[in-house]
Amino acid sequence: MKGLIQRVSHANVVVAGEEVGAIEQGILLLLGIEKDDGKEQADKLLDKLLKYRIFSDEQERMNLSVSDIEGGVLAISQFTLAAETKKGLRPGFSTAKPPAEAEELYNYFVSRLQEKHQGKVATGEFGADMKVSLCNDGPVTFMLEV
C-alpha cells in the first residue's frame, strides 16, 4: 500500500463538475492499493499518516502531525500509484488490487480514518474521473509505504 502525501494549505476534488470533497490546512492523500494489501497494511498506513510529523512547530521544525494540528485529510483513491514503471515506456497494472477488492479496502481505510481522526475528513469518489486541486504548502511531499 502506498500513500503519497502532500502538506496543503487547502485542497479539493471535483467529480462531474461538482465539488465532492474539500479541506483547509492538512494532508492530501493519494492512496494506491496493491494486490497483496489488506486491512493490516491499511491500519499501518493510517497510523503512520496520522502520526507523520510534517507540520511546523514554533521553531519552524517539522515536529507536528496532522492529528496534532487537527488538520484536514482529503483521501483520494489513486489507482496509478500501484503501477509498474521500471520497464518500458507504458505503465503496467498487474500489481494493483482488482477494482472491487480495492474499493472495499479503500472504504475500510476511510471509515477507520473517520473514526480515528479528529480533524475534517473528505474523500473523492472511488473509480471516478476526478479533478484534484491543491496548494502544496512548502512544497512538502512524501511517499509512505507499508
Roughly how much helix do the residues carry, as a percent range? 10-25%
Gap between N and C termini: 6 Å
* Radius of gyration from CA coordinates: 15 Å
Instruction: Name the shape in a single word.
Output: globular
Beta fraction of the residues? 35-45%
Total of helices = 3
* DSSP strand tally: 8
Helix and strand content put the structural class at: alpha/beta
Q: What oligomeric state best describes the polypeptide chains here?
A: single chain
Order of helices and strands: EEEHEEHEHEE
- State the major sheet: 6 strands, mixed
Question: Which runs of at least 5 residues are low in confidence (pLDDT < 50)?
Answer: none
Average pLDDT, rounded to a whole number, is 97
Brief overview:
The protein is an alpha/beta fold.
What does this protein structure show overall?
The protein is of the alpha/beta class. The protein is 24% helix and 39% strand. Strands 1, 2, 3, 6, 7 and 8 form a 6-stranded mixed beta sheet that branches. A two-stranded antiparallel ribbon has the order 4-5. A hairpin with a 2-residue loop joins β1 and β2. α1 packs across α3. The model has no long low-confidence stretch (mean pLDDT 97).
List the helices and strands and how they pair.
Layout: E1 2-15, E2 18-23, E3 26-32, H1 39-51, E4 55-56, E5 62-64, H2 66-69, E6 72-77, H3 99-116, E7 121-123, E8 130-145
Parallel strand pairs: 3-6, 6-7
Antiparallel strand pairs: 1-2, 1-3, 1-8, 4-5
Helix pairs in contact: 1-3
Key structural traits:
two-stranded antiparallel sheet, 3 helices, six-stranded mixed beta sheet, alpha/beta, globular, 146 residues, 8 strands
